[in-house]
Each structure stands twice: as C-alpha cells, then as structure tokens.
Design goal:
- The protein is mostly helical and about 190 residues long.
- About 60% of the residues lie in helices and about 0% in strands.
- It contains 7 helices and no strands.
- The chain is extended.
C-alpha cells in the first residue's frame, strides 16, 4: 500500500468525503467520475489505495474474530438460501434471461422476485397459522424454535400445478358475454 500517496492526497480525499456526507455530490456521481478518470490519475490511485487499506483491515478483523465469521457466514447462508429458492421458483428457461432488451430483462427480474416473495409470504402465513394453533393447544414455542424455521420450503409446493384429467371430456357451460341493458353517462369535467 502506498501510504505516501494517501498522505499527499489526504486533504482532497477528506474534501470529497465531506461533500458526499453533506449531499453536495452523490456517491454514484463520484464513482462514475472516478471510473472515467485515467488510471494514471493520482487522485484515482489515492482512492484505490484507501480501498485496499479498508479491505485489508476488514479481512484482518474477519480472520481474527470468530464471532464476526459466524455472523458473516449466517448472513451469507441466508442470502444463498434466498437465491437458491428464487432459482427454484424460476424453473422456466432454467431461470435465465434470454432477451437483450433491458425492459424485458427488468420485467423478468421483477416478476421473478414477485413470484419468489409471494411464495415466501404464503409459506410464512401457513407457518404462522400452525404456530398459533400449536400455541393455542398449549405448546410452548421459544425464540430458538423460531430461529430454525425457514420460509424457503419446496417440498409441498407443486411448481407445475395440479391438473385433473377426469373431467377433460365435460363440456363447459356456454359463457354469456352479454351485458344487461344499462345506460352509461359521461360527465363533463367541471372547470
């Protein structure tokens, strides 16, 4: 790490940090400007060196603190569990976005997230219903019991639906699309 470079540009670095904290420049704008700067620019290099220092300090903390490692592992496992469950819910096209249109890609991601969240919500409601029923029956439920529950359940979810074939030959009733005679009036807007 180039400590001399950081020391030479310390005032500039602090000015930028205070500008971001005061809201005079957004962190997104700063990152965009730094990414367009030439790699030979000393200001860019100073920020890169500060980033290396921060990463090194964080890595040393992680290596030396077992509790931090446990918390990090637990958080990582939660994120991985969500990702795996979300991938399980996106079974069509193996969950891959096969369109180069950014609008279609965004829709795919949003709909996939909505589907995953809806299944999680439904599972959570079912779990809470069972827990309330158990509590009403006199079972004692502790926070430790709740800590091992996960809404990422797949064993009772039929992703492809349930289709009854015994009524496949029954002709459905004729659908009457006729609306009853009603008078529709349009109001003029009041100015």
């Amino acid at each position: 790490m180039d400590w001399d470079l950081i020391e030479r540009h310390y005032d500039d670095l602090m000015r930028v940090v205070l500008s971001v904290a005061a809201g005079k420049i957004s962190s997104v704008t700063l990152l965009r400007r730094l990414s367009t700067y030439s790699r030979r620019n000393n200001f860019y290099k100073a920020f890169r060196e500060v980033g290396r220092v921060i990463r090194t300090i964080q890595l040393l903390r992680y290596v030396s603190d077992p509790q931090l490692r446990r918390r990090t592992t637990a958080a990582t496992n939660k994120v991985e569990s969500y990702y795996n469950f979300s991938a399980w819910c996106r079974f069509g096209n193996e969950g891959r976005v096969r369109d180069n249109d950014p609008a279609e890609q965004e829709k795919h991601i949003k709909f996939s997230t909505l589907l995953t969240d809806a299944v999680i919500f439904h599972t959570t409601l079912d779990m809470m219903s069972v827990l309330r029923q158990l509590a009403a029956e006199g079972w004692e439920i502790s926070p430790k019991d709740l800590a091992v529950l996960s809404p990422y359940q797949t064993m009772r979810i039929n992703r492809f639906g349930v289709y009854a074939t015994d009524e496949i030959t029954v002709t459905p009733e004729q659908y009457d699309a006729h609306l009853p005679d009603t008078v529709l009036t349009v109001r003029e807007p009041v100015s």
